[in-house]
Amino acid sequence: MSLTEEQIQRYSRNIILEQVGGAGQEKLLASKVLIVGVGGLGSPAALYLAAAGVGTIGLLDGDQVDLTNLQRQIIHHTADVGKRKVVSAKEKIEAVNPDVAVRTYDVWARADSIRDIIREYDFVIDATDNFPAKFLINDVCHFERIPFSHGGILQFEGQLMTIIPGRTACYRCLFPGPPPANAVAPCGQAGVLGVLPGVIGLLQATEAIKYLLGMGGLLTDSLLTYCALTMEFRKVPAQRRADCPLCGPNATITTLRDEGKVVCNRKGCKC
Q1: Domain 31-237: what homologous superfamily?
Q2: Is-catalytic flag, 187?
């Protein structure tokens, strides 16, 4: 593909970067990124990927916009309360950049449906807020050999890492399985600083762009943690584990499975 004059202007600050150039911008426009979870992490990631010119962005989320979301989920506005999140986010992305094709999946991340969705994309951003979804994304990306960025936040702290299946440590290398029930309070109980997901979500978008363009060093085999109270970043080394239940040589997880029940806010839903 070749860039139009309008695209050359729109993406000029990308194009003048030696590491990107016109060829890199064309590569971004031909790329596909799936964002699972259009909330605190997914909001900034979606907006910046759209602005950067990622040509196809998938949005997967089965929730609707709630008033409590607006403190941190910047892609949704007051007028969107009650609207399906993927619809609200699609409208904002298209307003930011009409070049972007937005695919929406108004469903929860579940083992019986996510594999067919994820395999259509070049990179996945895990912007979910629950452990069952995080382990499911890790597992399906492993089976489909699709790289992804894991991100998580709670109160004043966040973390992220990038996984290249078959080459780097996976999420289960660090955390073999979900914590015991009620061991970690959700944001609705523990709280979260509104600006925190902006930091982590933008770093996830950065990792996606770097991967798509093949530039820089990815955050692989390391867990990057961030504390907003102290303004400290810490990179914790991570290694592939020989006894990893998913990517180890004697793996015990060979098929997709849901690690727990998905809670849904959709009226009438019995999932």
Answers
A1: NAD(P)-binding Rossmann-like Domain (3.40.50.720)
A2: yes
